[in-house]
Design goal:
- It is a single chain.
- By secondary structure, this protein is an alpha/beta fold.
- Helix content is 31%, strand content 21%.
- Strands 1-2-4-3-5-6-7-8 form an eight-stranded mixed β-sheet, with helices on both faces.
Amino acid sequence: MCFELDSVPPIPAIRGAAVSHEDLVLEAADGNSFAAFAATPDEPAEVGVVILPDVRGLYRFYEELALRFAERGIAAVAFDYFGRTAGAAKRDDDFEYMEHVEQTTPEGVQADVGAAVAHLRARGIRTIFTVGFCFGGRNSWLATGGGHGLSGAVGFYGRPGEGRDGAPGPTQRASELEAPILALQAGADQNITAEDNAAFDEALTAAGVEHEVVTYEGAPHSFFDRKQEEFAADSDDAWTRVLAFIKARSG
């Protein structure tokens, strides 16, 4: 299970920060219309992030995360995966997301990433990163091989190896990845092993991809959540690493 619907990012809001936000419907190159949420600093920004949610798609956690980025001067767009099968309208909490996850394709996800990147570029954002969680973490790393001109990709507890359907993952496709990678993995993840993470690290090294694979020992999948108070220090460290990763590549 990824985040619960009432989960929120473990990041303090910056009170008084001047930001704007809006619900969007974006269109991918293949004609897919899908929901997104944009948060933008009121001061001009040159750096942006595309947020790839977990398997539930777009909901409050990721809208809040977009706001936390914007408060720190980084424009953000979080998007939904299920425009092709569920439309672009808001959904209730009873949405049966897994049947829609099973109908996604890597190509479709990357088409949607491309539309989110284009939205940011149209607003003057020159340096763009992806930040993803779980299903989104995996696809965030893969996005560096998607022709989007990214400056880097962050993934929280993404599956680096082959998918359950046998599709090649970031480990198998390491030679295609064209931007720096930050992987923030959970040491007590029941579905992603230390061997999986080591293989990813080794494949990126062999491919010459700048990267860092960080494992938080004892932390469970989806530890980056204010409700997971016992892993607050890990969450703080992960957020610090995300901001440092972006800052270091945004000159």
